[in-house]
Amino acid sequence: MSRFKRSVLVAALALSACSDPVDKAAKARIFSAEDPPKVVASAAEKLPPEDVADNPQVARRILGMDAAEVTERLGPYTYKATLTYEWTTGDAPPVKVSETRTLQAGPGGVSGDFHGVLENSRDQGLEVMRVGGKVYARNRYGTFRQRLRDRGMAERTRTELTGAIRDVDSLFQGRLQLTPQGTVTYEGRTAWRYDVKLGEAGEAPPVGNLPSVLDPKGGRDETTRRRLAFFEHRVPQSLVGEVLVDSETSVVLKVRLNGHLVVPPGKAAEGAELRMSLNSDLTGIGQDPQLKPPENFLPDADKPQGIADALDRFGIPRNKADAGTAGPVDPPEPADE
Asked: What are the start and end residues of every segment in region (Disordered) (predicted)?
């Protein structure tokens, strides 16, 4: 074959390859712009707040909105929620616990700065900050430690802190029902106001393909049995309050809820009941909190020493060969004949 014929054949093959629709589609996918993060795409979705009462899918979508998406839709804000629980079992005195969740969200959307705090009346809590892409965390009275290998801890904490209304809706088996009551003004914004009541019992909303609960070899302890019995046999009795939804962004701005659940006698040892309340507000909308990293913090560490440091402080020797550290170990004792 002559050189001219070979050139013509190669050109023909190249032309046919370029005209192949499959190849064109593949090239379009390869050289297309990167898709935006899922949260950014979700924030661009229009969710008419006036449809909340008539469309359960829109209602669940708005009530379950993630904190990252709220920031994408609303910009900087401050979120604060207070939950109170009063648990009664048999003739025992009631047990009361209150919990406060606070989140300051800076500009930058899903990747922006934030500062979250969780505290309760049992003197427990945690604090997480993300400033300039760096994460710091501590327990209530501890010292901040930088988390260079965050592994999503900060994102999960931000989601959990702002998910109080999701938690209540799940606790009441997805029976939170909204009734429109017109519009009001909140923080200078127009918001749809909804009255809350307990909806009819029905099929619980899906929670994903979760594995079955595993039992330990020695059986479940009493506390675990009581907790599982409550979630399995709880019966919502009442749920009242109000919810304000921003007319422009469909973000929940304010929540006031009071609820009551019971576990009938026989399902638990002596029956039980739970009364709870939720009050949450979004304030400082559009105001940059100007977050700064903590002044004093510990550097990141593979494994904080904890107990080992305490042993050293009291002069108690520790085995240098434990936890996978290289070093001599005692030979195993011979087995009995």
From this structure: 314-337
Residue carrying structure tokens 């606790």: 171
Contact (CB, 8 A) for 78 and 102: yes
Strands (E) in the chain, as ranges, are 77-89, 95-105, 114-120, 125-131, 134-139, 145-147, 176-186, 189-198, 235-246, 252-263, 272-283
What are the residues facing 81 on neighbouring strands?
101, 280
Tokens encoding 320: 């240098």
d(C-alpha 3, C-alpha 241), whole Å: 85
Taking 80 as the threshold, does the pLDDT of residue 329 lie above it? no
**Angstrom distances, CA of residue 146 to CA of 38, 68, 150, 289, 293:** 27, 22, 9, 21, 10
Q: How many CB atoms lie within 10 A of CB 176?
A: 26
Closest among 236, 223, 330, 242 to 274, alpha carbons compared: 236
Residue labelled with tokens 């705090």 = 117
> Is the pLDDT at 207 greater than 80, yes or no?
no
Spell out the residues 6+ positions from residue 117 whose beta carbon is closer than 8 angstroms to its own: 100, 101, 102, 103, 125, 126, 127, 161
Q: Give burial (CB, 10 Å; 0-12/13-18/19+) of 300.
A: middle
The dihedrals phi and psi of 111, each to the nearest 5 degrees, come to: -100, 10
pLDDT at 223: 80
- Going by C-alpha positions, the residue among 126, 186, 151, 110 that lies closest to residue 300 is 151
pLDDT in tens, 160-182: 999 999 999 999 999 999 999 99
Q: How far apart (Å, rounded) are the C-alpha atoms in residues 65 and 213? A: 28
pLDDT at 259 over 60: yes
Q: b/e per residue, 28-63, with b = 16+ CB within 10 A?
A: eeeeeeeeeeebeebbeeebebeebbeeeebbbbbb
Helix (H, G, I), strand (E, B) or coil at 105: strand
**CA 177 – CA 205 distance, rounded (Å):** 13
